[in-house]
Amino acid sequence: MQLSFFIFNRNGMKKMVGHSWKVWVLSALLFCGIAGVLFKVSPVFFSTIQPLDKKGADALSSKDMPLAPSFASRSLDGQVVASTQFAGKVYIVNFFASWCPPCRAEIPDMVALQERYGRKGFTFIGVAVNETEPAIRDFIAKNRMDYPVVMADDKIVSAFSRYVAGGLSAIPTSFVVNSSGHMTQVITGGRSKEDFEKIIVDALGKPGTPQ
Question: Which of 13, 14, 60, 90 is the most buried (most CB within 10 A)?
């Protein structure tokens, strides 16, 4: 298979250049490999939802889904934020940063959904990546984020990385946990308010299997 494209030389003449598709594929893979080395955690501008089984999340019972990792950290206001506190609740752990455009775009929707569903057994948990405390405190205040936010460290990143193919390497990335403490979905990239609301409503409407 031969691919062709047009370039313009210095005299404005159009010249057709052909390359084997294999060359293009190898070049793309090389570029992606270099990019992966250069950027440990980077914002992404596409969205995928990854059910944690080939059957899809809707086809699974809670016992078929992996348990969410245990974690414990302190929020910026000094309060302990631990997975044990959310037993019996639905929650979404959202890895984000104030300097990440798709993260900033979805935060106001998260704040609105937290207000709507926070009393119904749901919460977001924010994990700030590659941030300074002053910067994230300012961001939280400006966006009126009223759900727990902790600073990322090696322990919490490692705990959630095993649920992502290749490890946690892009933000925003969100992990959906049902009321029985099982991980149901991994969401890479920003999502709309409607998307998040559907995920929350579905999770709240499906009681988990008691452990």
Answer: 90
